[in-house]
From TrEMBL:
Domain HTH luxR-type: 642-707
Molecular functions per Gene Ontology: DNA binding
Record Pfam families: GerE (PF00196)
Name listed for the protein in its UniProt record: Transcriptional regulatory protein LiaR
Keyword terms: DNA-binding, Transcription, Transcription regulation
GO biological process, one term: regulation of DNA-templated transcription
Gene3D superfamilies: Winged helix-like DNA-binding domain superfamily/Winged helix DNA-binding domain (1.10.10.10)
Source organism per UniProt: Microbacterium hydrocarbonoxydans
PROSITE patterns for the chain: HTH_LUXR_1 (PS00622), HTH_LUXR_2 (PS50043)
Length: 710
């Protein structure tokens, strides 16, 4: 799977992991056919923005395998009937063919069918594609007509209407209503793809307001499955020409689809869609659309848009009387995602405004284990509740993706890096994990890949390439981490400086970056901008404090830092602090302390499963221990000192310090940087103070000492 994802990306045929899994299943794992099939799919389909075509198209490998198959008319009709049926029940197909099950198993097509427990399926799914693609349209219509009679006699109205509509050369409006009804039921039960199939067929035959309703069901089913482009295509024609009721019902799904595809919630006035009637159902649809828009704005850092939609939400909830069950949880979730989680927790219900919101509140309060238990209870199906926020879609793939992302985030906050990555990979193979929280799942997987592999893995790369063009994903921190773990410290520092120049963009729900090179303290906005458990914030505070520790304060501050560091429970958070203590000890020539901290960091990274971090620390530890044993090895001071000194100095001070270490005079430095000699002296004086040295000689000695161990 991983190798195939990489291969496809190299050939500019990127496939979202969950889409590739579906293709593998539908093609029985036949790799040559999978490769050829993917070349026939357009990018939105490969990225999971549209559903796979049903049936999948014919390709050369399938034709080569089955074009020589000889079937008599009866056997071919039966195989075609198996392919055309909505379900896999054996009994209707026996009625269609006239033979009993034992006779079928002994017939020429017996080897091609699997009959078990009253069910029937193709042994080789490739035959399903071939039989459909090679069927004469008139024969297919005749088989559908025969199936209409069989299912009607059995009282299965849905299947009868399905085959009636598939057999018709002209529209069959009378079949649409039943197909729409069942499509709604399937969608609410979490079977979004099958619901879309039925609603799409209903739309082909419906007219008038029934067509509007079919479009709404198809669009809502599409977005519930993660098919944003498909949802927009179904729902777009409702605006402005559809009936008001169905425009309002489709508004939520269209807002979600457009926000994902465009990278921002559409800039529309909520009042322009305010219902013109007093019908409570219309008002509830409008109110729920406002709820979705508010949360989506919060996910994307659009506080102004969030406030505007929250105001509409309050108006709507007052109108329909849903203040407690809808307004309060959505307001709490919106403000949490906007970076202000300290509001009084509210009691919502269902998978998102209930379990997920409570899990986040518990974790942010410091109780990550309770948060994970709340997610696990929801996944078990125990205590299933209606969620007014996502009513009718509690079991949909997108809602499940939101819950999976929160679980991975909490595991990462707890320091279980390897487990978090494994869970993320599992979710990526079955769910549209790129959609929730404005792409947070992609950020998480990339950081987890880096922590374990030291690079972006096949799944992370495929998800990144599958994002819509408008998605805003910052790559600078990832590239800095990759360079840092590979020992390319100057390159890592450069990426972090670029990231800082861009305003330090980061998700509202904290995903650790590389504050070893860009410490974020209280004066840099950590408290106001990032939602994280107390321990994550404490670890960030400790790293910022370590970066600022001078030689004169090291002995005193190290003991205080040790006490605080040992209180950290997360092995990953503590390991990063221990690693930074080790680096700082090296810079201050305290090799005994450096070895102690680096050994502890390596063990803790191993416990967390952060293999790449463990390897990077092991490399540093080896250099320290070599030096302690008398093995003197040289390193490029200019390259390494940028890593150690960047958090302490301004960019201009750092440039002056580097040139001094390289041997340049103050006059030469002034000429190269276009500064006066006096300005160079001022910068250099500040460098001496911050690095606790007295002159140029001590600065150069410090630089070489630092380079020996980093």
């Amino acid at each position: 799977m991983a190798e195939l994802l990489d291969e496809l990306r190299r050939h500019d045929l990127t496939c979202a992991p969950h889409v590739l899994v579906r293709i593998i299943v539908q093609l029985g794992g036949d790799v040559p056919t999978i490769r050829e099939m993917i070349t026939r799919l357009d990018p939105p389909t490969r990225f999971g923005l549209r559903p796979l075509p049903a049936p999948l198209p014919m390709v050369g490998t399938i034709r080569a395998k089955y074009d020589s198959l000889v079937l008599d008319e009866r056997d071919r009709d039966l195989l075609l009937a198996v392919s055309l049926c909505l379900g896999d029940e054996l009994e209707p197909l026996l009625a269609f063919d006239g033979r009993i099950a034992d006779e079928l198993m002994l017939s020429a097509i017996g080897p091609h069918l699997s009959l078990h427990a009253g069910r029937v399926r193709f042994v080789d799914p490739l035959l399903d594609i071939w039989i459909r693609a090679s069927a004469d349209p008139a024969v297919e219509a005749a088989v559908n007509e025969r199936l209409v009679e069989i299912f009607a006699a059995r009282g299965d109205r849905v299947s009868a209407d399905w085959h009636r509509s598939r057999a018709a050369l002209h529209g069959v409006p009378e079949a649409a209503s039943e197909l729409i009804r069942i499509a709604r039921e399937l969608s609410e039960a979490g079977h979004s793809s099958r619901a879309l199939q039925l609603a799409g067929e209903a739309a082909a035959h419906a007219v008038g307001v029934e067509l509007d309703e079919a479009r709404v069901v198809a669009g809502a089913s599409s977005i519930a499955a993660g098919y944003a482009t498909e949802a927009a295509a179904w729902l777009g024609p409702l605006f402005p020409d559809g009936a008001e009721r169905y425009r309002l019902q489709g508004l939520s799904a269209l807002v979600i689809a457009q926000a994902y595809l465009q990278g921002a919630v559409p800039a529309i006035d909520p009042d322009s869609f305010r219902p013109s009637t007093q019908d409570p159902d219309d008002w509830y649809s409008w109110t729920r659309a406002a709820a979705f828009a508010a949360v989506l704005c919060a996910e994307r850092g659009d506080s102004r848009g969030m406030r505007r939609w929250l105001s509409a939400l309050r108006d709507g909830c007052a109108k329909v009387g849903s203040e407690r069950e809808l307004r309060d949880p959505v307001v709490a979730l919106s403000w949490l995602l906007a970076g202000e989680p300290d509001l009084e927790p509210v009691e919502g219900s269902g998978p998102l405004s209930g379990g997920m919101l409570r899990a986040l509140h518990s974790a942010i309060a410091g109780d990550i284990d309770t948060g994970l238990r709340l997610i696990a209870v929801g996944d078990s199906g125990l205590g299933a509740e209606v969620d007014p926020f996502v009513a009718g879609f509690e079991y949909s793939p997108v809602v499940n993706a939101y819950r999976a992302i929160v679980e991975v985030l909490l595991l990462m906050w707890r320091g279980d890096v390897r487990i978090a990555r494994e869970r993320m990979l599992q979710a990526a193979m079955t769910l549209p994990v790129a959609m929730p929280f404005a792409g947070l799942g992609v950020v998480l997987l990339r950081r987890l890949d880096l922590a374990v592999l030291g690079r972006i893995g096949p799944f992370g790369g495929a998800l990144t390439a599958s994002l819509p063009a408008a998605a805003r994903l910052d790559h600078l921190v990832d590239r800095a981490i990759e360079a840092h773990l590979a020992g390319a410290f100057e390159e890592a520092s450069s990426f972090m400086k670029l990231w800082s120049d861009r305003g330090r963009p980061r998700p509202a729900l904290n995903v650790d970056g590389l504050d070893e090179l860009d410490p974020i303290g209280e004066d840099r906005g950590l408290a106001a901008a990032v939602v994280a458990p107390p321990e994550i914030r404490e670890a960030q505070r400790l790293r910022a404090r370590i970066a600022a520790t001078t030689d004169g304060r090291w002995r005193v501050e190290r003991e205080e830092l040790l006490v605080a560091t040992r209180a950290l429970v997360s092995p990953f958070s503590r390991a990063r602090v221990e690693s930074m203590l080790g680096v700082r000890a090296v810079i201050l020539n305290d090799l005994g302390a450096a070895s102690e901290h680096l050994r502890t960091a390596r063990r803790l990274f191993d416990v967390a499963g952060a293999d790449a971090w463990a390897n990077a620390v092991a490399h540093r530890l080896a250099r320290v221990e070599e030096e302690a044993a008398g093995d003197d090895t040289a390193r490029d001071s200019l390259t390494v000192c940028r890593l150690a000194w960047a958090p302490l100095l301004t960019s201009r001070e750092l440039e002056v310090a580097m040139k001094v270490v390289a041997g340049s005079s103050n006059r030469r430095i002034g000429e190269e940087l276009q500064l006066s000699v006096r300005t160079v002296e001022v910068h250099l004086g500040r460098v001496f103070t911050k690095l606790d040295v007295r002159n140029r000689v001590e600065l150069t000695v410090l630089a070489h000492r630092t380079a020996q161990y980093l």
